[in-house]
Design brief:
By secondary structure, the protein is mainly β. A hairpin with a 4-residue loop joins strand 1 and strand 2.
């Protein structure tokens, strides 16, 4: 479903931005942060169609974890030993294939160093070229990297939406994911 080369360009941009932000911090600041790439596997029940309807969205994010849903990934951390992360989540809301939308959410990523990061995020969904892009921005409200700024981007080729006009709609999406947290 996802063109695997999408993650390369997105990962390069996210890692460069994250590293630049970390490097630009004042020398006296206690800098920590992480920049990761991976994948999100999301299911929709009922499926997403061209008509807005209430649907339960269940998702699992894999950062630098290789498995059947996540073929590649990477993480670079500063001030932390974390090198992989994951989270599970779900929400129920009105969804459709052809509407630009915004919403608020709270996500908690568990890191392989035994810590976690809870984030308050504002999300915007948009069609950008031939991709559907979900951009989430916010702050780490608790846990590792607390107080840090968060930028999370999920990208799926719009071809994944080809079944929007069918009665059952689209029930599964695979999103390329980039997550950057910078905490001072």
């Amino acid at each position: 479903m996802i063109k695997r080369h999408l993650v390369s360009a997105g990962a390069a941009v996210a890692l460069a931005a994250g590293c630049a932000a970390l490097a630009a911090a004042p020398a006296h600041a206690a800098v920590s942060g992480i920049s990761c790439t991976g994948w999100q596997h999301a299911t929709y029940d009922p499926g997403v169609t061209n008509t807005e309807q209430l649907s339960t969205v269940t998702y699992h994010d894999y950062l630098n974890i290789i498995n059947g849903y996540s073929p590649t990934g990477s993480c670079i951390a500063v001030g932390s030993t974390a090198s992989t992360g994951e989270q599970d989540g779900s929400f129920t809301g009105d969804v459709t294939c052809n509407t630009i939308s915004t919403h608020m959410e709270s996500d908690t990523y568990s890191w392989n160093d035994g810590e976690s990061s809870t984030m308050a995020l504002s999300a915007q969904v948009a069609i950008v070229g031939s991709n559907t892009v979900i951009t989430l921005e916010g702050t780490v409200t608790a846990g590792e990297f607390s107080g840090g700024s968060v930028l999370l981007t999920l990208t799926a080729p719009s071809l994944d939406f080809a079944n929007c006009s069918t009665p059952g709609g689209v029930t599964t999406f695979e999103f390329a994911e980039t997550l950057t947290i910078v905490a001072l």
